[in-house]
């Protein structure tokens, strides 16, 4: 899979830009603030329908414009397809494939697959539990697009349930509706939790291999990576894996903690409060891993995602956003070797010297929103 042409209208800093791309490695080089990351962000957005930099769509639209358009001509298994998303803050976005409207924008997820790694990914190791949940859910949806609907239903139910709990805390209300929301939250939460558990089982061996490969640039490190799912619902610690059993456990926990939830006015049970504890060897990574180990683990998680998707039959677009500035020359060359087998690699860098020679097949200079072949 690769992007053959990328067109943007009023996306981020670009009023209009069209770029022809090829398989292999392409580097976008330019000083900070010139717009290079905006280009790879657009490719990743059309893959996941979310940005790796911001949680809302409004910042993606150029100042003064009402909407942005991301259009990509994608080639998969030698078959081209034109994929387009209209981003309109405050309204529903729209999507088209080969000029035909897609009934639901989320149906676009999975048509284009990408894996992006950026300096912000250190949060996967050092950040809050929400960073790790977001990572898991993004990969889940890319592998099984129907889970986008499950996640959307869960989030919608959670919002409604929290509203009811807040209202009940302030005044007497009929709580019979709460049971309805509990059923919905547990049903979707059980399915989401089951999918997360299964994904961790599959992903962790890939992460160990990737970590050992990444760490080898500095010194041999044969330690294994671990990823332990820690549910907020105590009942789930029994080792349940089936969606219905997990849903039943969530309902049991909601019943047990009903008084706490009513007093606090917020949902205390469900996958929105779960944690993933990452480890290297015998120690948890957060709080114990050095900066270099944390960086290697974060990169390993992304490379593991790429390898998992590739082994399922796709060769995702691999995006390395401003990562080489963090590495010495030996680590740069080693990472370039690790990703050299990808069908398409998109790289951003502030200076030419940051891009390893092995990833310099094609280069573009990015300056003041202008993209020109270098």
If you had to describe this structure to a student in words, what would you say it looks like?
The protein is an alpha/beta fold and 374 residues long. Helix content is 40%, strand content 23%. It has 9 helices and 15 strands. The strands form 3 sheets. It has a 6-stranded antiparallel sheet, with helices on one face. Strands 8-12-13-3-14-15 form a 6-stranded mixed sheet, sandwiched between helices. Strands 9-10-11 form a 3-stranded antiparallel sheet. Helix 4 crosses helix 7 (258-264), helix 5 (176-215) packs across helix 6 (243-256) and helix 5 crosses helix 8 (291-311). The chain is globular. It starts with a strand and ends with a strand. 40% of the residues are buried.
Summarize the structure.
With 374 residues, this protein is α/β, with parallel strands linked by helices. It has helices spanning 36-48, 123-126, 129-143, 147-170, 176-215, 243-256, 258-264, 291-311, 329-339, and strands at residues 2-11, 14-20, 24-29, 68-76, 79-87, 94-97, 100-101, 114-117, 225-230, 275-280, 283-284, 317-321, 344-349, 362-367, 370-373. It has a six-stranded antiparallel beta sheet with strand order 2-1-4-5-6-7, with helices on one face. The chain has a six-stranded mixed beta sheet with strand order 8-12-13-3-14-15, sandwiched between helices. A three-stranded antiparallel beta sheet has the order 9-10-11.
């Amino acid at each position: 899979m690769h992007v053959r042409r990328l067109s943007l209208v009023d996306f981020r800093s670009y009023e209009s830009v069209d770029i022809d791309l090829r398989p292999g490695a392409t580097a976008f080089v330019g000083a900070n603030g010139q717009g290079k990351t905006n280009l790879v962000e657009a490719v990743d957005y059309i893959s996941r329908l979310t940005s790796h930099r911001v949680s809302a769509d409004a910042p993606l639209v150029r100042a003064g414009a009402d909407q942005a358009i991301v259009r990509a001509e994608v080639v998969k298994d030698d078959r081209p397809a034109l994929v387009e998303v209209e981003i309109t803050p405050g309204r529903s976005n729209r999507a088209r494939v080969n000029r035909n409207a897609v009934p639901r924008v989320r149906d676009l997820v999975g048509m284009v697959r990408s894996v992006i790694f950026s300096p912000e990914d250190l949060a996967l190791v050092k950040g809050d539990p929400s960073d790790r949940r977001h990572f898991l859910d993004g990969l889940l949806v890319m592998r099984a697009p129907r889970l986008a609907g499950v996640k959307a239903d869960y989030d919608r139910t959670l919002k409604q349930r929290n509203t009811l709990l807040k209202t009940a805390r302030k005044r007497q209300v009929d709580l019979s509706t709460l049971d309805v929301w509990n059923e919905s939250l547990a049903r979707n939460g059980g399915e989401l939790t089951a999918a997360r558990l299964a994904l961790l089982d599959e992903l962790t061996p890939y992460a160990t291999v990737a970590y050992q490969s990444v760490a080898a640039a500095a010194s041999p490190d044969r330690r294994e990576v671990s990823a332990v799912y820690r549910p907020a619902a105590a009942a789930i610690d029994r080792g349940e894996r089936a969606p219905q059993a997990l849903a039943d456990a969530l309902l049991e926990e909601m019943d047990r903690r009903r008084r706490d939830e009513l007093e606090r006015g917020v949902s205390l049970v469900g996958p929105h409060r779960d944690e993933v504890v990452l480890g290297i060897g015998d120690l948890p990574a957060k709080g114990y891993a050095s900066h270099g180990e944390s960086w290697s683990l974060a990169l390993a998680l992304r490379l593991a995602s790429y390898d998992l998707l590739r082994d399922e039959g796709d060769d995702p677009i691999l995006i390395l956003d401003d990562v080489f500035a963090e590495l010495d020359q030996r680590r740069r060359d080693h990472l370039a070797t690790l990703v050299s087998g990808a069908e398409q690699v998109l790289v951003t860098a502030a200076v030419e010297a940051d891009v390893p020679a092995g990833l310099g097949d094609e280069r573009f200079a990015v300056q003041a929103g202008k993209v020109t072949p270098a």
